Amino acid sequence: MHFSKKCSVFKVVLSALLIVALLQLIYLSFLSKLHGRQQRYRYSELFGNAGKKNVHQPEKNTRKERLKYSLSTGGIFDASGQYRVYKNLIKSEFSANQKPGVDGSSFQITLATHTTINNLHHLDSLLERWQNPLSVAIFAHGQDVKFATALAYALSMFCPQIQALVDFHMVCHSGEMASFPDQDREQFAGLEDCAGVFAKLETHRDKYKNYAIGGNVSYPNNLLRNVARGGTDTAYILVIDIDMVPSADLPQQFSALLKRREPASDEVFVLPAFEIRHARKLPASKSELVQLYQVGEVRPFYEELCPRCQAPTNFSLWVNLHGPAAGQLEVAYTLNWVDPWEPFYIGPRTVPLYDENFRQYGFNRISQACELHVAGYRFSVLSAAFVVHRGFKVAGDFHRRKDEENRRNRLLFRSFKEGLKAKYPASPRRC
Fold this sequence. Notes:
The chain is α/β, with parallel strands linked by helices. Helices cover 39% and strands 16% of the residues. The chain has helices spanning 2-47, 62-72, 93-97, 123-130, 144-158, 160-165, 194-202, 221-230, 250-260, 286-294, 315-319, 364-374, 402-423, and strands spanning 76-77, 83-90, 109-115, 134-139, 166-173, 236-239, 244-246, 267-271, 273-276, 298-300, 331-335, 344-348, 378-382, 387-390. Strand 3, helix 4 (123-130) and strand 4 (134-139) form a beta-alpha-beta unit.
């Protein structure tokens, strides 16, 4: 009798365990189907529905429709006729809803940058630091045109902050056209979230350098800068390369400065530029940067390759400034441009455009700084804001044709300076 009771209890416990196991299997099956349904929906959002439409399908993906419309226009040709430009290929929620001049939005700053897909992975950390409107011009060539289009769209679909703040523009050769990759699905199978898209970008980071794309393809850096600049309606713009990062809270600090101090129409605000060893965490504040500067982990930008290109900033003066209260940005001192200074700066959207004849390496930024000088601009150095390039610039890291390109662009720069005399006949300034 005692044994019979034990056996009955054992059967009950065993039955309960089996029921629990069965319920778990049913639950896991349900989750798997739900996940699969969610993935199929996300997949269809990216690349369209292969089958019949479901009456319960959510509303039309307006982001995709806007992208398809942008692509259907065929873009526009640049002034040279060699490049096709798709402006505002993908617009952010900020751009779509922006109303200039309302609630202080006229003091908003946009960061404008440019890249190929091999450097687009830098967008993640750049946006994490900037956290304000960002305009990105992507140059793509050959098979990368369609791939870059899909990546930009996937970023805007899966990454909420990119969706909110980042505008994407595309530049390719005039004989190429961007298209929505409805049929190129295997490249993007399995994408589930923002991290997945950046992981896909990481696989292309070492494909080539921007100035060594191959096939005699020239990287049109100044055209890209102008496209990124032109893709925003904000009053002020900071133009930097995508592998550079500004100091923390710069947009808020700069907006506060403009409220305290009326800027002149012919004034740009210089951010001292530095470079840091790859292994180091990027400094957020001036105090962090100065500590690293004093031990040689941070140095002036281009110090090894062209110290004269940044020396007019006067780094020793800037580092030793005893400025205002923490968090308050001021103009520390004002400089006139001297050859061959190529400062990074925040400027009004009215500053002269970059000369698009300059491509590849050499004189692309200095030519624009030279024109600002001839046009009468002054360069006001900010007390506690800066930009940092990831990694030390050293001679051995450059592409093979760098010196040849530099020589060609030096000749172009000479004719460019002659052209400024005719463009600004009343100016007493020369480069």
